[in-house]
Design a protein that fits this description.
By secondary structure, this protein is an alpha/beta fold. It folds into 2 domains: 184 residues, 3-Layer(aba) Sandwich (D-Maltodextrin-Binding Protein, domain 2), CATH 3.40.190; 98 residues, Osmoprotection protein (prox), domain 2 (D-Maltodextrin-Binding Protein, domain 2, 3-Layer(aba) Sandwich). It has a 5-stranded mixed β-sheet. Helix 4 crosses helix 5. It is globular, with a radius of gyration of 23 Å.
């Protein structure tokens, strides 16, 4: 009996030691994020998932693009989700010339590897700029692509555009877009406003065309149709986890976990998650938890 108890005690101690050791393998990570809904959701989803995998996770969100990138470079955060187009154009100062999405991804991955930053698997979600119209107008006016829009404007149809000030002025914004597709909104028909107000203006019929971000949850919620960019004017902004190499080396299973999440995210999924927060007014924490549970990851 004593030998049996000793054996049970030994086995129990061994199992506890193995559990503690395996948990210890999953270290501490700081997950960064920007300050808008999509980024807050991605950080929260990542944080909850990694916590469930045994990591000690701290979230550091609400930062601007330059700040969160600087935090990654300065080892203040270990990982965050970035957009390929942002790195390609803003961080590495490349000029966009209709490069396909995979080329943009390869370019930023190779360049950042030199700085000890690893781009893991890109998701299928592409949060690029886009122009959208109301679904009813898309049907009645026959506008489904940017080429259709150009034909309408060149045919003397009067249409108004709502966009933010940045897009109106930037070098890869409205003016070169109009040149690429051969149309032009008269200056008086361009209504400049904050990005969030564009969605409401389009929904309420105060503008006919609106500048949107392709994975925004208000697109499906407000029955908008994104006009197809047939000439691929807008660069790809694939949502991708970026991680410090030093962090990956210390946590070999981290890449697998993040790639699992990346493989679950596409345009429709991201739009739906964003809508639950922005339209249904659910909390970021709740939406992230429900998503992970639905994927059997919690």
């Amino acid at each position: 009996m004593k030998k049996t108890l000793k054996r049970i005690g030994f086995i129990t101690s061994t199992l506890c030691a193995v559990f503690i050791a395996s948990t210890a393998l999953a270290g501490s990570v700081v997950v960064g994020g920007k300050g808008f809904t999509e980024q807050l959701l991605l950080a929260e989803i990542t944080g909850q998932y990694l916590t469930n995998k045994g990591y000690d996770v701290k979230l550091k969100t609400g930062m601007g693009t330059s700040l969160v990138r600087g935090a990654l470079e300065n080892k203040q955060v270990d990982l965050y989700w970035e957009y390929t187009g942002t790195a390609f154009l803003n961080f590495h100062k490349n000029k966009f010339a209709n490069q396909p999405g995979n080329e943009i991804y390869d370019a930023v991955k190779a360049k950042d590897a030199e700085a000890g930053i690893v781009w893991l698997n890109a998701s299928a979600a592409n949060n690029t700029y886009a122009l959208a119209v109301r679904q009813a107008d898309a049907k009645t006016k026959g506008i489904k692509t940017l080429e259709d829009l150009a034909a309408k404007l060149n045919g003397d149809d009067k249409l108004t555009l709502g966009c933010n000030i940045e897009f109106y002025k930037r070098d890869d914004g409205l003016k070169p877009l109009q040149k690429a597709y051969g149309f032009k909104f008269p200056r008086s028909d361009v209504k400049r406003m904050e990005t969030g107000l564009v969605y409401k203006a389009l929904k309420d019929g105060n503008v006919d065309v609106g500048l949107v971000f392709a994975t925004d949850g208000r697109i499906p919620a407000f029955n908008f149709i994104v006009l197809k960019d047939t000439k691929k004017y807008f660069p790809a902004y694939a949502i991708t986890p970026t991680v410090r190499k030093e962090t990956l080396d210390a946590n070999p299973d981290l890449a697998e976990h993040l790639n699992t999440l990346s493989g679950l995210i596409d345009d429709a999924t991201m739009s739906s998650l964003n809508a639950k927060v922005d339209v249904d007014k659910k909390s970021v924490t709740e939406v992230a938890k429900d998503f992970l549970k639905a994927q059997n990851l919690l």
